[in-house]
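Re: [ENG-882] Designed sequences occasionally contain unexpected residues at chain ends

Forwarding the minimal case from QA. Structure tokens:
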């Protein structure tokens, strides 16, 4: 099994990508989601920018920055933000119905510590987030792209690891979960072999399920289908150039 061991010399390069890890679904927006996008985007939405953004300025304070890639309907991210008002949370999702749904939930909870991008996550990581600006990166139940010919579409590969490592602060964490065992093994191969990360599992394998993580709808669906759920947790290695911005 090959997990794309070669990575780019510049993980933040905004090169055009012909292969993406997602296909934008044609799901219809509900009337409520339409209203949310119109009414609540000005408060919670963040427009993509191709230059680094000051995240402390975005939230008006200095706090930990936690990012979830592909938040689905936003249930998990809203629960995290409500449970941890001391931290700031950013969600990235390409599917408009999911964005509309999280805006509804964020407004109902009156959250001040949540912001949302409706854009390609790799472009946001590479161009909008500055080096070493994130404390935690969550990748929960990404599309496993089951068929071998589609493995090139998988989000987690060596290029992603290099980019994630460049955006996390030293000591920051990358947390992943999947209910597709071959993809979990793929993730282990990629990240165990990457110099930027240290597996926080004692045996370099899986970690116990994070008790603070409420099951997502994708996780519940996988469990109904009898799939084993694998959690992975990696720490950004402390390096001698920490704080130098590369």
């Amino acid at each position: 099994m090959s997990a794309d061991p070669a990575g780019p010399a510049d993980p933040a390069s905004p090169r055009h990508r012909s292969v993406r890890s997602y296909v934008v679904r044609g799901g219809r927006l509900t009337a409520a989601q339409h209203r949310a996008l119109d009414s609540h985007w000005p408060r919670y939405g963040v427009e993509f920018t191709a230059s680094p953004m000051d995240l402390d300025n975005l939230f008006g304070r200095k706090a930990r920055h936690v990012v979830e890639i592909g938040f689905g309907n936003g249930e998990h991210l809203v629960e995290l933000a409500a449970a941890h008002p001391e931290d700031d949370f950013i969600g990235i999702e390409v599917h408009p119905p999911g964005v509309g749904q999280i805006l509804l939930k964020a407004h109902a909870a009156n959250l001040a510590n949540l912001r949302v991008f409706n854009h390609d996550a790799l472009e946001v990581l590479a161009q909008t987030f500055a080096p070493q600006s994130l404390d935690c990166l969550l990748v929960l139940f990404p599309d496993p792209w089951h068929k071998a010919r589609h493995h090139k579409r998988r989000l987690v590969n060596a290029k992603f690891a290099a980019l994630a490592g460049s955006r996390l602060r030293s000591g920051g964490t990358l947390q992943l979960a999947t209910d597709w065992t071959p993809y979990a093994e793929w993730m282990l191969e990629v990240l165990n072999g990457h110099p930027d990360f240290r597996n926080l599992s004692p045996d370099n394998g899986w970690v116990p399920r994070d008790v603070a993580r409420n099951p997502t709808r994708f996780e519940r669906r996988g469990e109904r289908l009898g799939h084993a759920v694998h959690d992975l947790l990696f720490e950004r290695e402390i390096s001698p150039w920490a704080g130098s911005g590369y």
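QA comment: On inspection the terminal residues look reasonable. The longest strand covers residues 168-178. Proposing we downgrade this to a documentation issue.
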